[in-house]
Amino acid sequence: MNIAVAGTGYVGLVAGVCFAEKGHKVTCVDVDVNKVELMKAGISPIYETDLEELMRKNYEAGTIEYTTNYIKAYEYADAIFIGVGTPERTDGSADLSYIATVARQIAETVRQDCLIVVKSTVPIGTNDKVEQFIKDFLVHDVKVEIASNPEFLAQGTAVHDTLHASRIIIGTESEWAKECLLRIYQNFNLPIVSVSRRSAEMIKYASNDFLALKISYMNDIANLCELVDADIEDVAKGMSFDDRIGGMFLKAGIGYGGSCFPKDTKALKYLAQKYGYQLKTVEAAVDVNKEQKTRLFYKACDRMITFKGLKAAILGLTFKPGTDDLREAPSLDNIPLLLEAGAAIYAYDPVGTENFRTRYPEGKNDNGTITYVHTPKEALESANICFIFTEWNQIKSITPKEYSLWMQTPLVYDGRNIYKVSDMNQAGVEYHSIGRRNKN
Ligand code: NAD
Predict the structure, then answer these.
(1) Which of 137, 174, 279, 285 is most buried by its number of CB atoms within 10 A?
(2) Band of the pLDDT at 437, cuts 50, 70, 90?
């Protein structure tokens, strides 16, 4: 089928490339000229395993193209997938302005019957509004219908998650739309759950918010573990054997970040409030996460007289390994606090420093300074304190002994529970992590 994809971020680009890989003819549209030029040159504007390889393969085979010319892409498309951002507004609601722009562009350009598929995460009822909006502005006499097809990929493993998705959710209001989506996905050989549009929209929020809740629950229990001298890793292990709980997402840490969990929890909370309902569970997840992100910094404040002039090694800037995305990353909550306190930060991240540098340029920032380094060793050498924010392999491979060898004061605050407490203690490192005893 002839498919157009609006937006070439994590969702749109990966979807487009995977549709091409499965035999469709795909045109990816973005408003960002630089992104489109990069993609045409075979370079992915985002860091995702296997993505560039599939981009090049399909570009050379002529099954995918990239353009800013939405008219050409949309006018004779059989289906148009919308994968533009739906960021958080200051009140927590989802900003639908990018969706509205694409909807308007579609309405003004489509010249044949077309299924519009909303892949972006949107509040329940949005698909209805998009359909009405497109019909209101439709220029040519063609049939358009809207379907919901929320995306569940995780950044860092986006290609794998798309080609081997646990399920594909399709939300439609007619047999025609359902058949069309089934045809698009027929070569994927994955379980398909077909529901109404509103249920599909809700499945996305309910799934993300449940995972966020699971993370916040474990972090809440971890904080209590510290007080009652229990060990969260042992607790999680013991829980994981129960099939009703499941073994995934039981890891305590510095809190969730990224472009989805933070905004999707707040958006559902906002939506519930709009309907006069208080979504207490999700609200609790949001509150716990907010405090969790800076918990280690405030723990360190209790330990130190000052950060002024001290060398603080920061290991990891991105919100998780495998991505260069900084959105809602714990580093962004902690680094301003350290800078305000006068620290001399030496930050290491294997892929995230360039993005971070645009927000915090090298040199003086607030009362402190920030320097970007290329190896963990450069960050740790002669450091007085270290914070671990992301569990990159390059960071996990630092041995406990190396912290005590390289740092002036081997004092480590680990937001990812990378090390065994006993190993760090044995190596002479003062080690603070989440939900575990400092000494064992
Ligand atoms: P993103 O910000 O990485 O990408 C959005 C892209 O859309 C940008 O490249 C932007 O230039 C482009 N764009 C904006 N207006 C446009 C227009 N009029 N025409 C064409 N392109 C336009 O966003 P993302 O992370 O891919 O997320 C997209 C949506 O998918 C969001 O609703 C998000 O919640 C949801 N989602 C994201 C993930 C994830 O892991 N990132 C996972 C599942 C769902």
Answers:
(1) 285
(2) confident
What pLDDT is stored for residue 259 in this prediction? 87
Judged by DSSP in three states, 358 sits in helix
- The answer to whether residue 440 scores a pLDDT higher than 70 is no
Same domain, 94 and 172: yes
Q: Examine the domain organization and report whether 173 and 217 are in the same domain.
A: no
| Residue 260 a catalytic site member | yes
30 CB near ligand 1 (under 6 Å): yes
Ligand 1 pocket member 123 (CB < 6 A): no
List pLDDT tens digits, range 30-73. 999 999 999 999 999 998 999 999 999 999 999 999 999 999 99
- Ligand 1 neighbour 81 (Cβ under 6 A): no
Name the phi and psi angles at 304, rounded to 5: -105, 150
Atom of ligand 1 nearest to the CA of 264: 34
439 is a domain residue: no
- Centre of ligand 1 from the C-alpha of residue 249, in Å: 25
> Are β-strands 2-6 and 79-82 bridged in parallel, bridged antiparallel, or unpaired?
parallel
> Is residue 29 within 6 Å of ligand 1 at its C-beta?
yes
- β-strand partners of 295: none
Mean pLDDT (whole number) for 173-177 = 98
CATH classification at residue 306: 3.40.50.720
**Structural domains of the chain, count:** 3
pLDDT of res. 179: 98
Run of H or E residues at 195: strand 192-195
Instruction: Name the pTM for this structure.
Output: 0.94
Rounded distance between C-alpha atoms, residue 411 and residue 407, angstroms: 8
Amino acid symbol at 14: V
- The CB of 74 under 6 Å from ligand 1? The reply is no
Q: Same structural domain for residues 19 and 90?
A: yes
> Choosing from 18, 114, 225, 260, which is the catalytic residue?
260
CB 77 within 8 A of CB 39: no
**Is residue 121 a part of any domain in this protein?**
yes
Is 437 part of a structural domain of the chain?
Answer: no
Distance 204 CA to ligand 1 centre (A): 15
Is 161's pLDDT higher than 90?
A: yes
